[in-house]
Write a structure and sequence with these properties.
The chain is an alpha+beta fold. The protein folds into four domains: 4-164, Glutaredoxin, CATH 3.40.30; 178-317 and 405-594, Alpha/alpha barrel (Glycosyltransferase); 333-398, no CATH class; 598-679. It is 48% helix and 10% strand. It contains 25 helices and 19 strands. The strands form six sheets. It has a five-stranded mixed beta sheet, with helices on both faces. Strand 6 and strand 7 (262-263) form a beta hairpin. The radius of gyration is 26 Å and the shape is globular.
Length: 684
């Protein structure tokens, strides 16, 4: 019989709806049930494409005996971390503080007052490598609850007190300056892997936000070292197994330092961020590799993640059927020399093996290889390689495909909107811009209520019940602002303003200027979550600072600029110390130091034979391709009320013109693309 999760919309929760475990969703009723029964709560947190979450489920949650013990001695709550990032953040902070590490699945035991007292992640079905079995953990917690209740209460109380003292109050009027950004660059240089690209050791994650900072720092200062780190890292990732060499798009991370073997799940947020990074790298360097990867990643998102409603699904699983009925990680993506020969014939298979780095020994498991590009472009015949890639992709499409998490997350769709809008504009792909508009329309239609409050998720055209968190408001505003600059449609600027007004009213601490991840009116947890550091995505804190700054540059709104600058106090404090973990904040700080520049493009209202419509388009494209950090672009007719930046900006001798401004104070207008390009080169 299905448990209570059968009525949920989360794909992850629905995966557990037929478990013999009597799961509850996160709810006040679940904790009330724990009080009534006088039992602890077992909180299990994961997400749909999490490999080890599936392993734990198969080994323990689907076991009738284990499930029976759980049901007898606990109230069991299952949480999708992507639907409830606030719940995940609060208890992950406790797990990391207690154990020094974290991850998913996350297993936390709570009192009926939601206070944590025992933690873990994955537990095996039998003791292994010094790790207790899941059943042993359950029995130990049950015994502690029954026989040492005072000790449990003392531990839980201490944890809650410790968490409550972790308030972050970095705020104020001091923003990061030249010195802090230079120190941050130096810190990144020390952690940079000059042999392989990226930062630190294995596992290696795509450093999207750090690369954005490096590109902006290069644009503002001319630092060749910053550009080298960004471009080399991007090339190594694009040539590695972390990038899907057949279908485009990036896997979650590399398990090794060389980017060879990925953790195969594909997340929307990674691909949105990396699509934008590679487009910005091309904008800076003209790299053909960057251009190809940006477009292939954009096409992957549209082809494989777009939902019927026009939004973008959250993820593709790492696991899929290997053809024998077993779900195996990477089965969809890996190849052996024999498989190549079966598809291509011996001669082309030999070429494919050389081109993609497929060996008899294999680079993955059981003699299988993850496709890479180990050799430089130009060594192989491009037409022949293109034919090989097309044939392999066609055969792969016939393999059992990884599962897709169809949940639409507002924040991640905001990141995708920004990436697709800009990539479409840079490479003259109006279909990508249309896809961005479609996702934005869905967010407005389904996720926004009459007060412009955001729902965190939707699925199959139905909005979820969970309120949006700070990253949702910030990233969706970022996407709308990018869409406004690309399309010239002021309605997106207006919607961004609605969202950012909520940020000012509900997420900002008015005394310190610091930000919280949940609104002041959100459900009260044991701690109000607050984290200025990046994880897989930009932190809500610094993402909000960036969106507030861009909105202020478009509109001249001083409260928004003031809030952005106050929020950057945390970057001044943390940037020189932990630059890898506050990359987006450093990128926003670069924009503040640059102004950011504001570009107004004005063209005639009526197009005719004597009107230079192409002049408007050319100036607009030139402005979008400018590398000045955080520059905003408004395009329209003179005096258009859709963009305040266009007010009192006339044509020049009846011709389209561009105005480059800071704080709404503008240089002399120009009708010449080269002059506009020079003004936006990033360095005066």
């Amino acid at each position: 019989m299905a448990n209570r999760l059968a009525h949920e919309t989360s794909p992850y929760l629905l995966q557990h709806a037929d478990n013999p475990v009597d799961w509850w969703p996160w709810s006040a009723e679940a904790f009330e049930e724990a009080r009534r029964r006088d039992v602890p709560v077992l909180l299990s947190v994961g997400y749909s494409s999490c490999h080890w979450c599936h392993v734990l489920a198969r080994e323990s949650f689907e076991d009738e005996v284990v499930a029976g013990f759980m049901n007898d001695h606990f109230v069991n709550i299952k949480v999708d971390r992507e639907e409830r990032p606030d719940v995940d953040a609060v208890y992950m902070e406790a797990v990391q503080a207690a154990t020094g590490q974290g991850g998913w699945p996350m297993t936390v035991f709570l009192t009926p007052d939601a206070e944590p007292f025992y933690f873990g992640t994955y537990f095996p079905p039998a003791p292994r490598h010094g790790m207790p079995s899941f059943r042993q953990v359950l029995e130990g917690v049950r015994a502690a609850w029954a026989d040492r209740r005072d000790e449990v209460a003392e531990v839980a109380g201490k944890i809650v007190r410790d968490l409550s003292q972790r308030e972050i109050n970095y705020g104020g009027t001091e923003i990061p300056g030249e010195e802090e950004l230079a120190q941050a660059l130096l810190g990144l240089t020390r952690e940079y892997d000059s042999q392989r690209g990226g930062f630190g050791g294995a596992p290696k994650f795509p450093p999207s936000m750090v690369i954005e900072f490096l590109l902006r720092h290069h644009a503002r200062t001319g630092s060749e070292g910053a550009l080298q780190m960004a471009s080399d890292t991007c090339e190594r990732m694009a040539r590695g197994g972390i990038y899907d060499q057949l279908g485009g798009g990036f896997a979650r991370y590399s398990v090794d330092r060389d980017w060879v073997v990925p953790h195969f799940e594909k997340m929307l947020y990674d691909n949105a961020l990396l699509c934008r990074v590679y487009a910005h790298l091309w904008r800076t360097t003209g790299s053909e590799l960057a251009r190809r990867v940006a477009l292939e990643t954009a096409d992957f998102m549209v082809r494989e993640l777009r939902t019927n409603e026009g939004g973008f699904a959250s993820a593709l699983d790492a696991d899929s059927d290997d053809g024998t009925g077993r779900h195996v990680e990477g089965a969809y993506y890996v190849w052996t020399p024999r498989q190549l020969a079966e598809v291509l014939g011996d001669e082309d298979a030999e070429l494919a093996a050389q081109y993609f780095g497929v060996t008899e020994e294999g680079t993955f498991e059981h003699g299988q290889s993850v496709l890479q590009l180990p050799q430089q472009d130009g060594v192989f015949d491009a037409e022949r390689v293109g034919s090989i890639r097309e044939r392999l992709l066609g055969v792969r499409a016939g393999r059992p495909a990884p599962g897709r998490d169809d949940k639409v997350v507002a924040a991640w769709n905001g990141l995708a909107i920004a990436a697709l809008a800009e990539t479409g504009a840079y490479f003259d792909r109006p279909d990508l811009v249309e896809a961005a508009v479609g996702a934005a329309d869905l967010l407005v239609r389904l996720h926004l209520d009459e007060q412009a409050r955001l729902a965190r998720t939707s699925k199959d055209g139905q909005a979820g019940a969970n309120a949006g968190v700070l990253e949702d408001y910030a990233d969706v505003a970022e996407g709308f602002l990018a869409l406004a600059s690309v399309t010239g449609e002021g309605v997106w600027l207006e919607f961004a303003g609605f969202l950012l007004d909520h940020v000012l009213a509900r997420f900002v601490d008015q005394e310190s200027g610091s930000l919280y991840d949940t609104g002041a009116d959100a459900e009260r947890l044991i701690r109000r979550p607050q984290d200025p550091t990046d994880n897989a995505t930009p932190s809500g804190w610094t993402a909000a600072a960036g969106a507030l700054l861009s909105y202020a540059a478009q509109t001249g709104a001083e409260p928004h600029r003031t809030a952005a600058e106050r929020a950057l106090g945390v970057v001044k404090a943390l940037g020189p110390r932990v630059p890898r973990f506050i990359g987006w904040g450093l990128a926003v700080a670069e924009a503040v130091l640059e102004g950011p520049k504001e570009v107004a493009i004005v063209g005639p209202a009526i197009v005719g034979p004597a009107i230079d419509e192409e002049g408007t388009k050319a100036l607009h494209r030139t402005a979008l391709l400018g590398t000045s950090p955080g520059a905003v672009v408004a395009v329209g007719t003179p005096g258009s009320d859709e963009f305040p930046l266009l007010a009192e900006r006339p044509l020049v001798d009846g011709r389209p013109a561009a105005y480059v401004c800071r704080h709404f104070a503008c240089d002399a207008p120009t009708t010449d693309r080269d002059r506009l390009r020079a003004a936006l080169a990033g360095r005066d």
